[in-house]
Amino acid sequence: MKETILDISQHVLPGMxxxxxxxxxxxxxxxxxxxxxxxxxxxxxxFEFVLERFTADPRFLxxxxxxxxxxxxxxxxxxxxxxxxxxxxxxxxxxxxSVPLSQTVxxxxxxxxELLSDKTTGxxxxxxxxxxxxxxxxxxxxxxIYSFLLEKFYNISTFHSDALVISIRDDSTxxxxxxxxxxxxxxxxxxxxxxxxxxxxxxxxKNTKEDFDWTILLKLLPxxxxxxxxxxxxxxxxxxxxxxxxxxxxxxLNPVVDNVQAYYDEIIASLNLLVGSRDxxxxxxPELRVNGKLVFNDEICTHSALVQTSVDKGLxxxxxxxxxxxxFKNPEVLFYRNTADGDKRDGxxxxxxxxxxxxxxxxxxxxxxxxxxxxxxxxxxxxxxDEKLLSRLEPAVPLIGQLLQNNINEFEAxxxxxxxxxxxxxxxxxxxxFKEVAWHYIRDxxxxxxxxxxxNIHFKDVYPLYGAIDIRNSTVxxxxxxxxxxxxxxxxxxxxxxHIKEEVGLGLADEVxxxxxxxxxxxxxxxxxxxxxxxxxxLEYEVYPFLHHFKEGKGKLGESIxxxxxxVDKESGIAFSNxxxxxxxxxxxxxxxxxxxxxxxxxxxQTYPCYFEKFRTDGVEYDIYxxxxxxxxxxxxxxxxxxxxxxxxxxxxxxxxxTHELIPQMEKPLQTTQLIFINSGSIDIxxxxxxxxxxxxxxxxxxxxxxxxxxxxVHVKETGERxxxxxxxxxxxxxSKSAEEYVNYIKYLQEKNTLxxxxxxxxxxxxxxxxxxxxxxIGVNLEGEWK
Length: 787
Description:
Blueprint: E1 6-7, E2 20-23, H1 26-38, H2 43-56, H3 73-83, E3 94-98, E4 104-108, H4 110-116, H5 134-154, E5 164-170, E6 175-184, E7 188-192, H6 201-206, H7 214-220, E8 226-230, E9 232-238, H8 240-253, H9 260-275, E10 280-286, E11 288-290, E12 293-295, H10 298-301, H11 305-312, H12 317-329, E13 334-336, H13 347-354, E14 359-367, E15 370-379, H14 387-391, H15 397-422, H16 428-445, E16 458-471, H17 474-504, H18 508-524, H19 532-551, H20 556-567, H21 577-605, E17 611-616, E18 620-626, H22 638-661, E19 672-677, E20 683-688, E21 693-696, H23 699-710, E22 728-733, H24 736-751, E23 760-763, E24 774-779
Parallel strand pairs: 2-8, 19-22
Antiparallel strand pairs: 1-4, 3-4, 3-9, 5-6, 6-9, 7-8, 10-15, 11-12, 13-14, 14-15, 16-18, 16-19, 16-20, 17-18, 20-21, 22-24, 23-24
C-alpha cells in the first residue's frame, strides 16, 4: 500500500475553489459501531477489534490534515481490509482513498499507484480525465455532486451520471488502456451551513435532459452553503476489452466513407487494443462473389495478409481462387503457432512464411448464421500468438461479421449502380452477365487512370424466336375515328361561329367559317391524306384565339362557346368519343396480351433460362433468345429450343382466342393477327447502350433483324392478300426443315382441337432485299372446346 498524495484531477468546478472540505473518518467509525450493534456472527469480534484500533488514537476521530495522514498507517490499512475483499491482491486491485470532492488521493494500492504515477519522477502521469472534453468533464462532476445533494436534502433522485471512462497509456505495449472510474461517497457527511432555499422541482427536471446546465443549480444551490467531511473511495475497473468492442461498434455505425484506409486503420487499432499488443496484425477478408464466383476487391482485400502476400509473390490468381473457394465451402478455424512447422501441402503457409509471418490464424466470421468472410490474425514475432490471445477476440467477432456484411452490401450496391448507370433494369436470365461486366469495370478502374471503358455485353450462338400480335387495320381504324370526331367538332364549331356572326355582326367570322367548311370537306374525303397536325394547328392558332375573345361574354353567346368547349374535352367530350372508344378497346387487347405473355415468360423460364423482351406497337411484339451463352452454368440442349417453339405456337393460339372473346366487351370491336418468324439457325446479339436493349450483331445476323421488321405487312404471292389474318397464326420461314418441325407441332395442337384443319403452305411476295420467303398459315379454334 502507498500513502503518497496524488491529485488525480486538476479541473476545478467554478464555486469549488474555496469549498469547505475536511478529511474525516467519523462517519466510517459510526458505521462500524452500527455493525457491531447488529452483528451476531463471528464478524462482530473483528469489527470490535477494528473499532478498538480506531479509538486507540483519539486524533483519528478528529479532522485530519493531509500532512499528518501518514501517521495513521495502521488505521488506513484496516479501512482497506474492511472495504476490499480479503483475498484481493493489492498489486492488481486499483483502489484508493481521497479527500471528498477534490479527488486528492492520500492512500492507494500499489497497482493504483503504479498505474497513475511516473516510475521515475513519482508525479501523476496524467489527469485521469484529460482525454474527456473539459466541458463534458465539468458537467459530469456537477451531475455527480448535485445528484448527491438533491437526493440527500430534497429527496429528488433525478440525476444518473454515467460512469466516467478514462484512458491511460500502457508503457509496456504503447497502447491505451481504458478504466471505468467510480467515486464512492458513502462515507461523506454533508452539513448545510444554514437554511436551504426551496427549489422548484420543474427547474431541476429541466436539467435532467441531455444538455445539463449545472450553472443554474450553482446559482440556486452554491457549494459554499455546505460543509463536506469524510472520505471518498475511488476504484478503477479495467474495461479495455469493452471499450475496444465499443470503439469497433462506433466505427461501424459512423464509418469514414471518404477514407477507406483510415476506416480500416481504426478497426485494426481497436483489435490491437482488445488483444493488448501492437505486434499482432489483422486482416479482414469479406466473401465477395459475382454470380456465385469468388472475387477479391483490391480496395478491401489489401487488408488481407494472405491476399496481399500472394499478389506480391506472383501466385497464380486462379490457383489462389481455387484454394480460397475450397476453404469457404468448408470453413473452420485454422491456427498455426509456427508456420514453419505447418503442413507444406498448404501452399499458402509457404507464402506467409516467405513474408516473415511466424504465427497465423484464420477465423471464419458469420453474420446472422451466414458466412460473410474471415478474420486473419498473425504475427511476425515468435511465441506471441496463442490460443489465449485468440480467445480475447471473441467479443469482437460478431461486430466484425457486421462489418464484413457491410462490405458485401456495399460491393453489391456498386455492382447494381454500375448496371443501372451503364445498362438498364435487367431480367434474371442475363443479369449475371451484367454483374460480371460491372465487376470487371469496378476492378479495372479501382487503381487505373485514365478510366477503362466498360466491356461490350454480347451473347454468341443464341436461338431467336420472334412473335407479333397486331391489331388488325389499326391505322385505318384510327383514321376513321379521327375523321368521325373531327366532323362532329367542325359542325359544332361552325354553329358557334355563325352564332358569333349573328350576335356581333363581325365579318371576320365569315372567313373563319369558310376555312372550317374547307377543312370539313377535306376530312370527309377519305381518299385525302389529311395531316392531323395541320388541322390541330388551324384550331390552336386561328380558331381558339378568336373564340377566346368572346368566351367571357354573357348571355346565349357565352353559353354557346362554353358548350363547344365541353364538347371538345378530351376526357368526356363527344368530339373525342370515337378516338376514346378505339383507345379503350386497344388497351383492353394489349392488357390481356401483356398479361398472358408475362405468364408465358414465367413458364418458359422454368425449363431453361432465356431472355424475353416485349415491344409496344399498336399491338405487342416480342423477342426471345435462348442458348448456352445465356446460361453457361446449365447445359443447353436443342430439346429446350424445341420445347419453347411449341410453347410459342400454343401461346399464339391462346392469345388469338383471348382477344376474340374480348370483342363483346369492346366499345369498338377489334381483331388481332398473330405472326411468328421461324429462324432455323443461331445468331449473335449484343447490348446497345444507346437504346438500352439487345440487338443482333454482325452483318450476317442483321438479315434476321431486317426480315422480322418487314414481314408484318407481307402479301401472299400473286394474290395481293395480306399474310396475317384475324383468327389465324402465320409462320414465316426460309428453311423447309424448320417448317417440318412446326408442322408436327401444328398436328399435335390440331389433335388437341386447339387449331383448325385448314393448314396452308404459302409463298410470299418478295420484299426489299429479301426473296424466297414462305409461310404456314393455320386457323385457331376460337369457339370450340380445347382438349
